[in-house]
Write a structure and sequence with these properties.
It contains one helix and 23 strands. The protein is mainly β. It has two domains: 137 residues, YVTN repeat-like/Quinoprotein amine dehydrogenase (Methylamine Dehydrogenase, Chain H, 7 Propeller); 135 residues, Methylamine Dehydrogenase, Chain H (7 Propeller). The strands form six sheets. The protein has a four-stranded antiparallel beta sheet, with no helix packed on it. A hairpin with a 4-residue loop joins β1 and β2.
């Protein structure tokens, strides 16, 4: 799920993962209420699986940095769709091959888009493919400088792979570091080379410092939230707090980020907590 916003009103987007894959767009008011859903075909195929988290990933749908474009994986047809965000709707711009099998996760870095292809072992290996986002929303081979790093969490191998993004946007590496906890799943990259990773094994969140050579140094290791199914994580714009979604227990845990990446649990939220705190 992804969200685009302005001062009062915005839109929230969710992917259906149906065989004929679609995006559902909702209007969001300044109180957070969603209404007026509209459906837009991606032009590709989902897997059609009816289960919790059928793609086993975080970030299968994402917005460009300027909120002008929306990108989505089509795991059933091994391609990526890009949309232009219009007033209360979407316009399909492009559909490109993902460069691998079973694309399930996307990440934006400046004007570059990266996709993780989970593969189909042992027939096809997992890989990461990079695209440049053109000014009109079309996708092409990466060709602009970024000089940053890309982190891929590997829940099956319990590794975190760090790629260097070189001067033409291509990837070098990776440098592989074992995850502090079992089942690294969702991750978020912060400023000052900090990384937070949700761990579905212990139901916890770990923080790392990303070194220049791609190695990871643990700052806070596997800080437990005492929930179940801790999979996805996001960070607030000021990078003071991190939030994990706990699918098994239906809760969200808020962590405070202090002292250069140290994590402490603040509280957990349920839907009842949210409604009780919502203004009249």
């Amino acid at each position: 799920m992804s969200c685009n916003k302005n001062n009062y009103i915005g839109m929230v987007f969710s992917m259906t993962n149906e065989i004929n894959n679609c995006i559902v767009a909702f209007i969001r008011d300044n109180m957070g209420t969603l209404s007026c859903p509209k459906t837009f075909r991606t032009g590709g195929n989902g897997t059609g699986l009816q289960q919790v988290d059928p793609l086993g990933s975080q970030g299968s749908i994402t917005l460009s940095s300027d909120d002008k474009f929306l990108f989505v994986v089509n795991a059933g047809s091994n391609n990526i769709s890009s949309f232009r965000i219009c007033q209360w709707g979407l316009s399909l711009i492009d559909i490109v091959p993902s460069g691998g099998i079973f694309p399930n996760s996307l990440a934006i870095n400046n004007h570059n888009l990266y996709v993780t292809n989970a593969g189909n072992p042992p027939k096809s290996a997992a890989n990461v493919t990079g695209f440049h986002i053109d000014s009109d929303g079309h996708l092409s081979i990466v060709s602009r400088p970024s000089n940053n790093k890309l982190v891929v969490s590997e829940a099956v191998t319990n590794n975190l792979s760090v790629y260097n993004v070189n001067c033409n946007g291509m990837l070098n590496g990776p440098t592989v570091t074992p995850s502090n906890g079992v089942g690294p799943f969702g991750s978020a990259y912060l400023n000052n080379n900090l990384l937070v990773v949700a761990e579905v094994g212990p139901n916890a969140l770990s923080s790392y410092r990303v070194m220049n050579n791609g190695a990871l140094d643990v700052i806070s290791g596997s800080v437990l939230d005492n929930q179940t199914g801790t999979c996805w994580v996001c960070v607030d714009p000021n990078e003071h707090y991190s939030y994990t979604s706990n699918t098994g227990s239906g809760t969200i845990t808020r962590y405070r980020i202090i002292n250069g990446g140290t994590l402490t649990v603040v509280e957990k939220y349920t839907k009842y907590t949210y409604y009780n705190r919502r203004p009249n």
